[in-house]
Write a structure and sequence with these properties.
alpha/beta; 6 helices
Length: 309
């Protein structure tokens, strides 16, 4: 009863269903990969964020190249801020608020210059395109605790003088005109001596893995459901074929034309006589033409044809 599955139509449906299933499986794997990336980031936060700061000597190599597993590593720095070269990074978000982040070069006592992100400033009310004020860092020798983070890619957009479009460390180094460490920068979370005012500290990274797992299960379920739908359609076709076969057998005994499923629906469906614009359909035109021929036929007793009695 399932021999119809070998027909061209049903093979085509099966190929289409298989294509949909492959697409859904790909989307499910994509969500799983995204979840894996989020879980990796969360593991870095849990492992490093609240650890005890290490000295600059231990972390010097991390300022030149930061491995992913070392992200958020706390480092204790001693040195002086180069506050004259302060820059702000535009188009930043902190706690759903738009604003800026403040970057300041910092010369360590070992002589290496690193970049420190001192925190967030909201959009100013006095002047458009810049914060109202940028708090100055402490002067003189300072002890600063930072968490390491990798630099950001170059963005294809400019920024006003004194501002940066992103935390692109090589581009910032070029603007400064002297050598700085470009492998990572530090997010400041403590300064000694503490200034009277300072930018707002950036919020802790989110440790919620999000809905990626549930989304992946949904895509996998869709991939299974298309085959379930195909199986249900095949089962229905089997039932229809069986009923049609029984109808043919019964009609043969009655000496009548069998009424099959599709023919039955077509027979009961009213004809559409006019189009939307009011003109007759092709089917209506054809029926009218055939009726006219039948009316004019010599064999029609209702019509008098000249030369016939």
């Amino acid at each position: 009863m399932y021999r119809f599955l070998a027909s061209t139509r049903w093979i085509g449906w099966l190929l289409l269903v298989s294509l949909f299933a492959l697409v859904f499986a790909f989307l499910g794997h994509w969500q799983m990969d995204r979840r894996e990336g989020v879980l990796t980031e969360i593991s870095h936060v849990k492992q490093n964020y609240d650890a005890q700061p290490v000295s600059f000597d231990e972390a010097a190599a991390l300022f030149e190249a930061l491995p992913q597993e070392a992200k958020w590593t706390p480092v204790a720095l001693h040195g002086t801020y180069l506050s004259d070269d302060t820059a702000i990074v535009r188009n930043r978000i902190s706690g759903s608020r738009p604003g800026y982040e403040v970057l300041v070069p910092f010369r360590t006592k070992e002589g290496t210059i690193v970049i420190i992100n001192r925190g967030f400033l909201p959009i100013g009310n006095d002047s458009a395109g810049k914060p109202d004020a940028v708090p100055a860092p402490p002067s003189g020798t300072v002890e600063v605790d930072v968490r390491l983070k990798g630099g950001e890619p170059t963005l294809d957009r400019g920024a006003p003088q004194g501002q940066l479009a992103s935390i692109d460390l090589p581009a910032y180094e070029k603007l400064l005109g002297y050598d700085v460490a470009t492998g990572s920068y530090g997010l400041m979370f403590a300064e000694d001596p503490a200034p009277s005012s300072a930018p707002t500290q950036l919020v802790r990274p989110d440790e919620d893995e999000g809905p990626h797992l549930s989304y992946s299960f949904q895509w996998y379920a869709f991939g299974v459901l298309v085959f379930v739908g195909f199986g249900y359609a095949a089962k229905q076709q089997k039932r229809i074929n069986k009923e049609d076969k029984e109808e043919r057998a019964a009609a043969a005994l009655r000496g009548e034309e069998p009424v099959l499923h599709q023919a039955h629906r077509l027979r009961n469906r009213p004809k559409k006589l006019v189009r939307r614009d009011g003109s007759p359909t092709d089917e209506a035109t054809e029926d009218a033409y055939l009726d006219e021929l039948e009316r004019k036929s010599p064999d029609n007793p209702k019509v008098e044809v000249p030369g016939t009695n």
